[in-house]
Structure formats: C-alpha cells, structure tokens
Amino acid sequence: MPAPHGAIDHEALSALAAEPLDWRFKAVPVSAWGTTIGEFLAGRPRLSDLGTPLLTLDAPALDANLAAMVAYCADAGVELAPHGKTTMAPELWSRQLAAGARGITVANVPQLRVGRAFGVRRLYLANALVDPAAIRWISAELDADPAFGFSSWVDSRRTVALMDEALRGRAAQRPIDVFVELGAPGGRTGARSITEALDVAEAIAATPALRLIGVAGYEGVVAHDASPESLQAVRDYLQRLAGLHSRLLTSGLYGDVDTVWLTAGGSAFFDQVVEVLGPMSTQGTKVLLRSGAYLIHDDGFYAGISPFSRGVGKPLASAMHGWARVLSRPEATLALLDGGKRDFPFDEGLPMLDPMRGSVTSIVDQHTFVRLDPRSDLAVGDVVRLGLSHPCTAFDKWSLIPVLDDASAADPLVTGLVRTYF
C-alpha cells in the first residue's frame, strides 16, 4: 500500500530544483554554472554535455529494482524501512516511501537530522542513541510533532541509564521507542547473549522515558558470502533473534504496545530473514526489513550475493555506472583513466570495464589503471563506462548525481539530478 503523502516533506523536495549550480558539484559542467537544477534539466542535457569522471544513475533500473522489492515484501508479508545511508538522497527516499516503505532507517545522528530536515515521518536509528544533546533533541521533536515516529536500538543497561538521565527533568510528553538489540560475538553492537538482552529489556521496562517495541539485529555481521556455511550461520543468528522475541513475549516485558516488531535484514540475506522470522508474524507481531542497497544494486558484490541473484526472483540491475576518460596510454598494454578512489567505490571490488575493452588492474586516488590488449584501439580522449561495486561507498563521493533515461544508449538524456547529503 502506498505510503501517505505526508511520509516526507514534498515542499522541501521541490525546493531542490531551485538550488543554484556551481563549482561545488563536480558532476556539473561549467556551462551550467549560474543556472538552477530545474533550469539545467529544462535544457534537456545529454550525457555528452557532462564531464568526467562521473557517476550516473539509470532510470529504468531504478524503476525495476524498486518494483521488485515492493513485490517481494508484499508476497512475503513483511514491512520495509530501507536503510537511507546507502544513498542519503531524500529524493530517492521519497520514491521508496511512496512505493510503500514504512519509514527510513539511518545509522547516526547526522543522518537523522537529514531525515528530519526533509520531514520523514518515521525514522529508525539502527544504532544506540547516547549523545545527551541528541537524546533531548529527538525527544523535543517527538513532542513537537505528534505524527513523527522514531525508534533507536539499546544493547546495555548503561545505554538505558544515559537516555534516562538525558531526559530527566524534560517532562517529555512521549517516551522514546526502543528495540533491544541482539548482536553476535566479534560483531558490531548488540547484547552478546539472550540473557544479557533480557536484562537490558528489564531496564527499559523500568524506565518511563523509554518504551520497548521490539527486537533488532543485523545478520550481515555473521557472514559475507552466500556459501552454505555462511547461510547456516545467518539462520542460526536469526533463530537466536526469534528466541529472544519469544522470551520477551512470555515475560510480558513488551508491556501494552499494540504491535511489536522483529527487525533485521540487510541487502544480502533478507530472504533468510523472511524464512526464519516470517513465520513469527501474527496479529501483534510484524517483521521489518531494513535492506538499503537493492534500489541501486551494483555490478559487483551485491550482484553476486543478493537473494535476487540466488534464485529468489528476477535479478536486479545495476542502476549506477561510472564514466571515465582515457588520459594517457603510455604503454601498448596500459591506459590511465581520469577517475580514481575519490570518484568510484573500491572497498568491495575494483571498477569493471567491458572485457572486450580491457581490464581494470588497480585504482589510486585520481586514476584507474587498465590493462589492454596491445591491439586495442582505445585512445586518449575516449570515454568508457565502468561497472561498480557497492553503492554505499559510491554515493558518498558525489553530492549531485545525474539520472539518465537509458544508460545503454549512445548519448542518454539527463532526466534528473539527485542531491545527496553525507
């Protein structure tokens, strides 16, 4: 079901079209300086009007990926609050919300502030909130806006005490909703055992300033590939989440909340989340995925590990591409491109070139090294398209990203400019 119109501030989004273009945006040509985003797009620019290096988005792929995840969640009977940290692009968040997402997940307080600046009505902070000033700020936001929904994770009695101390004397009208987080040994945050998590839940229940609404976890901490062993580790972890939820139900620590939530699910193993936690959905319990990379996808890490690439459904398409120009061909078998680590992601694999054109062997700050067949006709000045891996570390390098009507066309039309806030 589409989210209500008030899920995000559409006036704030519309105002982005009036932002002036200048030297701050490396995707923008000098010829566009002094115009606004709206004016630039009204001139129907083409890819060839933009310089390199460049990151672009492909409109058809965005549409297809969005529809695929909407259909999957509907069929599985789960809710979705996509992780906004992947893009930090309110324009893309708006599309996800309009397609039915329950809210937007963020990872830290700066990202939370972006969400509030654009009026996102329901935000999930997938982390502990322990900064006293931030705790008081979010409490004031909740009191000032009855339609605003917020929750964060708690994994220790100390976190509960810090939140309670920060709110003491505020006379808050609404408690802060929290999830007790269960982690894994050697992983990131989260109580390390069900016993510890139950102890945290007892502390939450004893604190009027907080309200326990569910159990949270992230299965990506226990596996980084889709081998049978890794998938079993993910299932084992999710079974522990389910066990914690069952213990909380029988203990009565959820109190009188109408709906309790089980939330997990990155972009690599959300099918396992549905398989293990889905059966626990009842009238009073719902499952919430937080997958974020599905909308953009990639040609590398997620192309190999996404459930949609493992037989769950039709594979997603990479909606992001890099573009770089040959700067030098100093050797018969070597070309240097004008994009590097400051432009393209490299933490989950190097950029990829059409094998018929060459292969990327390394990447440094401002250059990409391409190994060529000595007979290659790739020449200085030629522009090549690159496949990329890991959208989370692609978007943070670009404050404005052109959207193309068809990235595979000879000279695509630029139909949008997506603003990011990192």
UniProtKB/TrEMBL annotation:
Keyword Transcription regulation assigned: no
Stated name of the protein: Alanine racemase
UniProt cross-references to InterPro entries, sorted A to Z: Ala_racemase_N, D-amino_acid_metab_enzyme, D-ser_dehydrat-like_dom, D-ser_dehydrat-like_sf, PLP-binding_barrel
Keyword terms of this UniProt record: Isomerase, Lyase
Domain D-serine dehydratase-like residue range list: 319-405
UniProt family annotation: Belongs to the DSD1 family.
PANTHER family, sorted: D-SERINE DEAMINASE, ZGC:162816-RELATED
An example molecular function term from Gene Ontology annotations: lyase activity
Pfam families: Ala_racemase_N, D-ser_dehydrat
Source species of the chain: Actinospica acidithermotolerans
EC number: 5.1.1.1
Entries under SMART domains matching the protein: D-ser_dehydrat
